[in-house]
């Protein structure tokens, strides 16, 4: 198989990876706090013997789109949003994880937890405890939790990262970090609201259509190359009657 076919196959592999990434984005278009992803490519051009120039790519990495999703107001005082570059910290069996999804609730022990049951951590790395006999609680923009009488109960831990692209997904809405978290530079907590997914469904579907068309063009080129090679082999196999 000649270079053109190898180039085309490498492009198909990259397109398949991008298609998978887009499909995951679309599947989470309604998931609160979800951050879409993009496949990063290095692109090259190759001129095959037949047809137009072929652009082929090598996928280098997958990057997060860290832009903020729209703020959606809810009627739940336990729904929290962290704006800017901040993340909530939750404790999982595998260690601390970071999330933008603030759909929390108190468990039977009075701890503030995620929908999966992971404890939300306070500024001292302890689970946030919610006294169930104090009535509705107030959460201010700095994450301080107070009773209706103004008594401070706890402070929800909010962290940031020098380079959020170093984060790795550890589930739909959780991230694990290879670097130590830092104080967020521009962040505040909003009570009674959730951050929507930042995925644009129309844009993702448009990209998916473009990728499908590109995949078909590449498949056609591979078939043309195969046909050309078969024709060349047949010609070489014919006896030379003029000898």
UniProtKB/TrEMBL annotation:
Keyword Methyltransferase applies: no
Organism: Oceanibaculum indicum P24
Major subcellular location class: other
Keyword Acyltransferase: no
Organismal lineage: Bacteria, Pseudomonadati, Pseudomonadota, Alphaproteobacteria, Rhodospirillales
Limits of the Flagellar hook protein FlgE/F/G-like D1 domain: 82-143
Protein name, as recorded: Flagellar basal-body rod protein FlgF
One GO location term (cellular component): bacterial-type flagellum basal body, rod
Keyword tags: Bacterial flagellum, Cell projection, Cilium, Flagellum
PANTHER family found in the cross-reference section: FLAGELLAR BASAL-BODY ROD PROTEIN FLGG, FLAGELLAR PROTEIN
GO biological process, one term: bacterial-type flagellum-dependent swarming motility
Subcellular location: Bacterial flagellum basal body
Positions of the Flagellar basal-body/hook protein C-terminal domain: 190-233
Residue intervals of the Flagellar basal body rod protein N-terminal domain: 8-35
Family: Belongs to the flagella basal body rod proteins family.
Quaternary organization: The basal body constitutes a major portion of the flagellar organelle and consists of five rings (E,L,P,S, and M) mounted on a central rod. The rod consists of about 26 subunits of FlgG in the distal portion, and FlgB, FlgC and FlgF are thought to build up the proximal portion of the rod with about 6 subunits each.
């Amino acid at each position: 198989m000649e270079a053109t076919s190898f180039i085309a196959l490498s492009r198909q592999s990259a397109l398949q990876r991008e298609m998978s990434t887009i499909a995951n984005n679309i599947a989470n278009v309604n998931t609160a706090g979800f951050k879409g992803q993009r496949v990063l490519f290095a692109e090259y051009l190759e001129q095959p013997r037949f047809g137009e120039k072929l652009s082929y790519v090598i996928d280098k990495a997958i990057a997060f789109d860290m832009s903020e999703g729209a703020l959606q107001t809810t009627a739940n005082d336990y729904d929290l949003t962290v704006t800017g570059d901040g993340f909530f910290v939750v404790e999982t069996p595998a260690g601390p994880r970071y999330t933008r999804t603030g759909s929390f609730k108190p468990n039977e022990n009075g701890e503030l937890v995620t929908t999966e049951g992971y404890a939300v951590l306070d500024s001292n790395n302890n689970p946030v405890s919610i006294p169930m006999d104090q009535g509705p609680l107030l959460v201010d923009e700095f994450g301080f939790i107070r009773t209706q009488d103004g008594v401070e109960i706890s402070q929800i831990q909010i962290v940031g990262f020098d380079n959020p692209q170093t984060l790795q997904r550890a589930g739909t809405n959780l991230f694990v970090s290879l670097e130590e978290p830092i104080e967020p530079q521009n962040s505040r907590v909003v009570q009674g609201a959730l951050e929507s997914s930042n995925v644009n469904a129309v844009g993702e579907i448009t990209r998916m259509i473009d990728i499908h068309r590109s995949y078909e063009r590449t498949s056609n080129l591979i078939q043309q190359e195969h046909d050309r090679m078969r024709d060349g082999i047949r010609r070489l196999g014919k006896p030379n009657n003029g000898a």
